[in-house]
Structures are given as C-alpha cells and as structure tokens.
Structure prediction request, 173 residues.
Amino acid sequence: MSALDIYFDRKSAVLAARRADFTAAPEKATVRIKATSWVAGNTGARPVKMGETLFITDSAPALAGNALGPTAPEMLLGALASCLVHTYLIQAVLLDTPIDGVEVEVRGAVPMGGVVGLSYDKVPQMEEITYTARVVGDAPAEAIERMHQAVEETCPVLNTVRFPTSVARIAEA
Prediction:
C-alpha cells in the first residue's frame, strides 16, 4: 500500500485514456505549448505566462534585479526538477511500483562572464547540471532502479536538456 494510492489510481486511469486517445489519433500525442515573457517596466522583472499561470522572474541585485522571483536559469532547473518528479510518478504507475513520494533536487552552474560583456571562449550556457532523486517507499531496490532507468529514458525535459533540439528565432511579420 502506498501513500499515493488514490492519486495513482486516478493517474492510471488517465494514462490508459491517453494511450487510447494517442493510439486512435497519433497526431494528438504531440502537445503544443508556449510560454510568453516581457519586461515589466523599470523594474526589469520579467513576467512569464505559461498556460494560464503567471510567474515573475527576475535577476539578483548583482545584475540590477530586485530578486522578485527566480532567475531564468533557476526556472530551467525548476522545470527539469518538476518534470523529473512527474515522470517518476508516471513510471511508478506504469511499472506498478508503489512509492510514497519522490523529491528531486537539480543543481547547475552558470558562467556569467559572457553574459555581462566579457570575452568568452565558449557560448554562455548552463554547465554541470546534476540531479538527485530521492524515492520514498518500500518497493524493492531492483524495482526502484528500473524506475530510475525508465525516467532517464522518458523524461521530456531531461531529454531536451541532454539532447538539445534546435531553437529558432522567428521574425515578426
């Protein structure tokens, strides 16, 4: 018995429904999403709209921000952490592995020299991204290891960070 049984029952039914939907209409398996951001006047803060949710992102005072919200690199790490947790939950259902919880911590480094106008040898990008996943429950170690492997294979944000896709600027009409 898992502390998440009620959630896992609901998740299992939803996953079965999505598999049926996607089998009947494979084009529905690709979900189109977007995020929009803009500068909020003289604060320099950047509201970001994702779906129906609005977040405030900002820089630290060291970059003329007001620390009103997470930085963009922190948002990237947060998105990765959230997607990893969700993928653990999905895999727990698919692999019938009872867990009571999962916590993921993601860390990274941001070389800022090129960002602030110094010369650089390689383009500024996040480095040394690592994560730790703490799975709570009584499942056998082998089952937890199978889940870790399945998460490594199927987490979309993890795979996007590991195997980057192209990002293209589209000129406004």
